[in-house]
What does this fold into?
Amino acid sequence: MPETKTSWWSAGAALLVATALLLVPATPALAKTEIQFWHAMTGQLNDAVNSLVKQFNESQAEYEVKPLQKGNYAETLTAAIAAYRQRQAPHIVQVFEVGTQTMMLSGAILPVYQLMKEQEIAVDWKDFIAPVVGYYSKDGNLYSMPFNSSTPILYYNKDAFQKAGLDPNKPPQTWKQVEEYSKKLIASGATKCGFSTGWPSWVQLENMHALHDQPFATRNDGFDGLDVQLLINREFGVKHLAQLAAWQKENIFSYGGRRGDADPKFLSGECGIYMQSSALIGGFTKGATFKWGTGQLPHYGPPYKRATSIIGGATLWVMKGKPANENRGAARFLKFISDTNQQMWWHVTTGYLAISNSAVKNLEAGYHFKKNPDQFTAFAQLTKGTATPNSQGLRLGNFTQIRDVIEAEMENVFAGKKTAKQGLDDAVAKSNEMLKEFAAANKQ
Amino acid sequence: MQRTVFKSRWLPYVLVAPQMVVTVVFFFWPALKSLQLSFFRVSPFGDKSTFVGLENFTKLLTDPDYYASVVGSFLFAGGVTALAVLGSLVMAGLATQKIRGLAIYRTLLLWPYGIAPAVAGIIFLFIFHPAYGILPYFLSFVTDYQFNWLLKSWVAMTLVIVATAWTHLGYNIAFYIAGLLAIPASVIEAADVDGAGPIRRFTAIVFPLVSPITFYLVVLNMVFAFFESFGVIDAVTKGGPGKATEIMVYKLYRDGFIGLNLGSSGAQSVILMAMVILLTVLQFRFAEKKVTYR
It folds into this structure.
């Protein structure tokens, strides 16, 4: 406590000056219109987003996009919803693929095809690669702007393969080979387990059904209507899940949790083979302490056809209710990120797919894929197989909850509490309830 | 306790007003909103809301997952309360001996209470995770049995009970230390002289004399385990495996904020609140009779 009156006055004066300095903002010469962009990218991906946004901001003088990391995908969506209810929604929000149906029917979004039309910005919609466009379009019109699309691929530990006497340049291509290689890996002591997986429902059920040309749900996987039911408890689903559960007993397969929780199993060398999003290439390049490679997801072979896998990741949605000049800013940003140059940059920096054919052609012309063959695996898997109606993607309401239910039942099956048939039957019963709920809530 | 007498009529109200405002805005209003929400089916973005009466409640009461969640919550709350209250009594007993460094021990015992539940969860995650935890690593040298709580639900439940109880020990210990120190030494000495062994001294004298504190802590720990255990579960198991640790407060978060079914989430929070109120009332009616107040 200052002893004299003078000290009190000095303290007061200092406080006043400090407050004044804080309150006077650094006013730029021209006030740019701010565009709020909420996303869920973390770590190295967050840096990439910031860099991309900076490129846009520096390329023009009217708009300033402000990226804001809001947590994970679910948290970002919840935040956007809460903000929308307060009429303080961001302009652009990144929503994961399972939120597509929710966003499409929400009445809170401005479809991007409409936005571009209103703003008279020409976009070559036909240039986007088919699997991505198919997932996010309705009646042939794109509703959200593809941003970070990925697909699950197979990663394998080349050093471990070498130690086990396997060819380090030949990843397993069939499930039979996965089993064989896993047994060799374990027997030679190269690894403790054969393979693991991230995002159990997305990789092992959704993508496996698509890859084997099996329907995941009725009504054309949900694209044709809201009265949908799941079909994962049929022969193929039960066969694959039962197989995984059986392998779990021998440590050929080792369950490591949901989402990316099992990543350490591969990175630590515990498992020699791993199935996860192609978006992990960047992270693995920085973080893996061993030589690794990629391959396409394994297939059971005949009698199943080899189709394509489906995409995951997220897209950018534009929220309704903003004034036209701000919409223009959002439109210009979306055009910017979908331009060939930015696409190529984004792909090379993050490992996410470049979503336009021009970008892919340019990358091929620049020998990018020859120098980085791992980054081509995802493309090949998406575009080189035979696309069928069962492999175009899934459009389900309440999909987040449905995935939750499916993964909980998968855990019951892996733990030996239920047989694969029981688990899948229960998952289907509960999911169908949720789909009915969604249909009732969205009676059109 | 002396009754404070205010000279002016309105001063007491003015002084209490800020707290009342906070309580109303942050507790009563959201509770009423939840009650209102529970009777509607609301679209995620809030643009459509249909009155559905008691449909959210009937859906819950006919959902086997919900019953599993209720049972799990009681198991969880019971486990946390038992562990936290008994464990803290033992530790408080140890912390009231005449030993060197007593102040340091007491500080260290009280410390964990200051840790946010989510942080405690992360700590336990790094110790116990089957893929990258240090305890499974060391255990693998001793036994082949996999304490893999990603697959074994009893391991997962035990883990979250222990983690949650651990965070609350400090609070309980503080109360128990005060309670134990308040027991006059003469009573203990008299019992000792009469030939009572340490166990008899405890059950006949110490335990009854701290029973008001025990009662208070049991009620408080139960409420805490039902409501504030969210952080640990979210950080560690996220309701898994297979929904084994999806206690009621976690389920209503998942359904409301991840699944975006706000009507059901509201109904769940109403049921949860009603249950805990009932529990507290029952405890006051029956358990309080056994408490020996001085």
